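Journal club side-thread
Mid-discussion, someone asked how the predicted structure for our own chain would compare to the paper's figures. Pasting it here so we can look after the session.
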Amino acid sequence: MQTSKIRKLKAFLVPFLVIIFLCVSEAGIGYLVVPVNSATYLKKEISEYKEKGIDAGIVFLGSSRVYHGFVPEIFEKKLGMDLVINAGSGTQRPESSYYLLRDLYEQVHPRIVVLGIQWNGILKESTDAQRLESAVTACDRMSLKGKMRYVPEYLFSAQLPYFCNMYRHKENFRFDKIKENIEKHKKLDSEGIVVDKNKESYYYGKGFIYSNIHCEAGNIPVMDELQDHFSVDEIDESKVRYIDKIYEFCKKNDIRLILTATPVSMMNMYHIGGYEDAVRYYEEYAEEKGIAFHNLNYLKGREEFITDEMMADYVHLSGDTAIMLSELYADILKQELEGGDVSGYFYRDMESMKADVNRVVALKASVKANGYDSDHIQISALANEGEKILYRVEAGTDDSEESVILCDWTTEKDIDVDIPERYDKLIVKACIEGDESNYAWQEYPVKRAEAGDTE
């Protein structure tokens, strides 16, 4: 009987002591090992607005596609708001968005929440690591109270230690690192947020991350992800429940909720199986809840203003594109909030959007050695059904722009080429017949086998 009481006491005390330990480590020693980064900047800004009693007109939630996509100051200016916050974080999942929203509501009381969703955002995860990354990056943007609300989700999980800064940043638990962090925090407090704008990406303000990266025309790679097909059978119902919780929280607190799909490359929409099913799912969800859903991938004329060169990669926007998109989306939101009809901004479906796409949007090739100086290439391309596609293969070098044509434009997708000795890469191109100057392309290293061998 005594043993039973001790076990019950332990069952109560262990979680309680863990929470106390996390509070102490987060508020004290943990603070010293956390690097100063975009999450630090955003928390500082939110804290300052909270102290001034300034509430947010809009809070954006979602993944890195959101924090690379929407510029708060543009929405402030166009919508006449004192404060707009971009609270996107890397790989942010619905459960992370929910707890982050609750924390932000207690600090800046947003009137509108724009929740960024993506086609695979509610599908089952392939690994626990994906959910953990989402959780900790969102947690970095929360107040201590918000973190303690989130921790019970992981209380009996092996992932719990990652919510303790002393554990997660244990490599910084050195005198030199702690001293460096203290100096950075002092500098932040005295000078405010100062960033290097020459970096590939940098903190722009209020949660937006500006990217200086641009893809080259026609060079968006065909993505290689574990999950490239949407199916209702693969939906994780727990994620849908958290979107429901976000909806219910917004309704309870008189917050207007809007779902938004951030722009990705054209390659994604051609490559993803069941993309239209994903769009239809969110459309039906929004209709059922009586909220707006804006699919910015279906913006009319997007072929002209969201070209490959305007992307940072195949799912993120470059900074100048985000500024341009924010200008347009602020106009759309303004019209939406005033009760206007915004359907004219969007294609009605995938078919109508594809009607304005007159190019090969991406290609992928498999290269295998076919002898020491010969390669076999298998090419696939993404374009509208029924288009006649031509392929071309060139050889080049990494240290020169010089190239030589190995196989000129042809409809053959399986090609054997002989490669001159001094060339070390293949340049594979694909275009619509009659428009050879507008091609998609990828580079691949030459696959040389030993003489007489094949791979």
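Post-session note: The mean pLDDT is 89.
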